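Recall that a protein's primary structure is simply its ordered list of amino acids. Everything else, from secondary elements to tertiary packing, is in principle encoded there. The following example makes that idea concrete.
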Amino acid sequence: MATRAAATATVRAVKRRSLIPTRAALTLTPNAVTRVRQLLVEQPAALGLRIGVRQRGCNGLSYTLDYAEKKEKFDEEVFQDGIKIFIDKKAQLSILGTEMDFQESKLASEFVFNNPNISGTCGCGESFSL
C-alpha cells in the first residue's frame, strides 16, 4: 500500500535580504562601563570581563565575574563603549536582555544585574532561579 504525503513543498531562490540588527545580549549602564574600564586598567593582560553562572546559593544560580584574557570558542562577545564583555556559553540563555549596572553605597559597591528572565531571587539577592 502506498503512503500518501500530507503536503508538498516547493523551494524557490530569493534575493538575499539584509540581516536585521539584533539587540545585544547584555547592555551596560554608564556606571558599569566606567567601573569595568577601571578594573581593566588594573589588569593590563585582560582583554575584558567574562560573565558566567554557577550553581550556588539558596535559589540555584549566581553570576560569576572573571578577567578574560582571550575569547573562548562559544563565548558571546558584547562590545560597548570601548570595553568587551564575554558571556560564557552556559550563561547565554539566562542573561539575554539583561542590564548590568554598578552601584555604590556606604556599605557596598557591586555590580547589579537587572534580568527580566529571573523568576525568583533569594533574600540576600546573590542567587536566582529561572
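The radius of gyration is 20 Å. The longest strand covers residues 48-55.
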